[in-house]
Input
Amino acid sequence: EQSFEYIKVSTPRTGVAMIELNRPKALNALFTPLIVELNKALESLDKDPSIGAMVLTGSEKAFAAGADIKEMAPKEFADAYGADFIENWSQLYNTIKKPIISAVNGHALGGGCELAMMCDILYCNAKANFGQPEIKLGVIPGAGGSQRLTRAIGKSRAMELILTGKNFSGQEAFDWGLAARVFETPEKCVEGALDTAETIAGYSKIAVKACKEVVNKSQDLGIREGVEFERRVFHGLFGSEDQKIGMKAFAEKQKAQWKHR
Ligand code: CAA
Output
């Protein structure tokens, strides 16, 4: 059991881990100690065979109000470039193989918005407050915002938001396709994320892992290579017990009892 200062880790449902960002005094502003804890937790949950999916959330007030401006303010170019500042924030996207659903309530600004977008599925409350306000600080998004927001909602809208620093609501995030679902209250948002995570955790871990891998590949590959990649992974799954179990259960009108669950 690891103990953390800036996050809370729990297992509210069978097979489901929840990570809550917990730095209330700074509206969950993201600073190095918090990111280090988050990465540690993600890494161990990713390895934990009892966990099939994860939910990442904040408080009702803030998912995360961005990178810690006070921590960043004194940095020089050599500090930022030399230490590749913010690079380790992408561990969630770069190394975690299990699905992560972000449940966004309250502020999700700058790095907070970026962290939410790194997750595999984004859910939010209608009143959540998203934005990439970095322009107001004399900088630009630094943890993938310019790339992920643009892919999610299109160039013109993303350009407008990033150039003006204007915030947008959870309802807008849903209407524009950034969020998969929008909820009326913060509680419903978290419960909705847990429900979906529980559904995912009920499937074969091998198939779930492959689903995430192929969908993510679509972000990096052209359509021809992407479809080819998908087909190869699909072929590979015929070597898994769970393909046999799943298809046999269908034919016998039974519920599949997955080997890799
Ligand atoms: N960094 C450091 N501290 C922060 C913070 C941040 N990003 N956001 C909030 N806080 C702190 C405040 O300084 C304040 O601390 P004190 O009580 O010690 O003064 C505390 O959290 C509560 O905040 P407010 O009093 O400001 O709360 P509010 O309800 O009046 O306003 C808010 C909420 C609109 C979110 C406002 O706090 C705000 O604008 N925060 C900054 C948002 C921002 O610009 N984020 C982008 C950061 S840049 C970035 O993320 C770069 C990147 O791409 C990685």
